[in-house]
Every structure is written in C-alpha cells, then in structure tokens.
C-alpha cells in the first residue's frame, strides 16, 4: 500500500548540516558521520544512496574547500554553497529544500557534534512506527553553565506563555520525512524560526532523548548577543501577545491614572495638596519609558511586515555539488 511505502527500512536518508566557519570541526564531524552511515547502511536500515549534505553559509574560512575535498574523496558527502551568509535558519532551510529532491527522510543537525549522532538510530525506530517528524530532545542541560541553563528554561516557558507550540529542550536536531519537508515549503514567511514552524505541520510526531556533548573544536557560533536576537526572533515571528500585552498595560495605566486623578482632586478639595516635583518626574520618566518600549515592540512587528511584503529570497544557492555529478 502507498501509505506503508514511507516506512520501509531502506529509505534514502540525507543529513543536512549548516556550516559557518567550521574548518576546524568539519574533518572531525565527517569522520564520525562516515562511521555512522556505514553502520546504518551495512545493517540495512538506510539506503546506500544516503548522504551527508553540508551547507556552507557564506563562510570566510576554508569550510567550502573542505566540503569539496570531502565530496571528491567519499561518495557519502555532498554540499551546497550559498552565495552569501544568510544565517543558520536560512542555511538549514536551503539544505532541507534541496535534500528533499533526493531523499526520503532528512535529519538536520549542527556541525559541532554536540548532538549525539547515535540518536539517529532512535529516529529510524520512530520512523518505522510511521512517524513523519521526530525531535531530538536533550535529556538534561548539565553541560550548560548555570546562567545558560536558567535563560534557556526561562525562554521555553516564555514561548509557551506566548502561545507558541515548541518542544522543550529541542534545538534543530530532528528527522523529517520528505512529505513533511514538502509541507514545510508551503510556509512562506521570511522571518524563520523553524523550531516553532515545524510543529505547525502536524502529522505523526515523537521525540528521542539524548545527552548533549561539549563542542570538540572551534568556537560556538551563538554568543549571548546572537542568542538574544534569536530569542526575540522566535517570539515576534510566532506570537502577537507582546502587542496585546502593551494594549493591556495601556488600559491598566489608564485606569490607574483615573484613580490617581480622583485621589488628587479629593486631597485638593480637602486642602492637603503637597507641592513637589517627585511625583511629576517619576510619572514623566515612567510613562516616557513605557511609550518608548511600546513603540519599539510595535516597530519590531512593522519591520517584520516590511520584510515579508518584499518577499525577497531566503537564500541563493551558488553551487550544488549534487547537480555537478
């Protein structure tokens, strides 16, 4: 039957890995993935046509040269080169949209090998059960600093409060079927936050837990500044609750001002008016700061609308090694 076709054990699997200045890490990652794919192919769990697709997101080092060398030396490797740096989410999307033309299932992961590649076995087990999407979920955050652990947990709770459907402790390590990726293609927004968009697709979904390791080489591509920017992107791309919060806050302040007005009228009538500048100064600064915050939040949404209406391409592929064969 057509519906059972997607769950056979010899499906073609592509592993999509966005890369930005990863010349130190790529050889280590490549060695680990070759062993993993060779084992899975030997066990008959995936097709011998399965590959690893590295996506060079406009790197300034020798990342692309290493990808080309890996492609020439081993048929398990292929690559995409974007015309310029477009950011992790766009590079990942470029890989997914390209890989779906060749693969039945697609695993996305980062180049730093912090995501346990042995979790792929669990992905395939869930796939055999008919899952279209399987999320890799960290079993703990023991390798993080206390600050990073607290901020991450707070962020997930904030997203949940904002009405965003997201898998707790999941980054971008997941398996998707060709069918799921084809549905993802129907989401046209320019402001990408795939962790929040993928759950909107639906279909049968499950999770696989794993222990996250430390980076073996190179530096993290997500310093605090980028993490904050990514967090804001996630909230404003998927929820309008910040604007509603401003509206609610405005209504609240309006009612408080009415109460304060009545209070000052009463004490004026009673002849107990106290002349001073403290209340005035505090009120001016508080309301001024609130207005600037409100304008900033609304401006963030207007900026996103501006980018969406332009409908600029999310990425441009300069070279696809798969097509050059």
Primary descriptors:
325 residues, alpha/beta, 10 helices, 8 strands, 14% strand
Describe this structure in a few short sentences.
The protein has helices spanning 26-42, 63-73, 88-99, 119-128, 146-161, 178-184, 194-197, 224-238, 241-269, 278-310; strands at residues 13-19, 51-56, 77-82, 105-108, 133-138, 170-177, 205-210, 317-320. The chain has 325 residues and is of the alpha/beta class.
Q: Over the alpha carbons, how many angstroms does the gyration radius reach? A: 25 Å
Strand content: 5-15%
Looking at the structure, what is the overall shape? elongated
Helix-strand pattern = EHEHEHEHEHEHHEHHHE
The stretches of 5 or more residues where confidence is low (pLDDT under 50) are 1-8
Mean pLDDT: 80
User: How many beta-strand segments?
Assistant: 8
Note the main sheet. 8 strands, mixed
Percent range of helical residues: 40-55%
Strand-pairing-aware structural class: alpha/beta
What separation lies between the terminal Cα atoms? 33 Å
Sequence of strands across the biggest β-sheet:
7-5-6-4-1-2-3-8
Separate helix tally: 10
Structure in words:
This protein has 325 residues and is an alpha/beta fold. The N terminus is likely disordered. It has ten helices and eight strands. It is elongated and about 90 Å long. The longest helix is centred in the C-terminal third of the chain and has 33 residues.
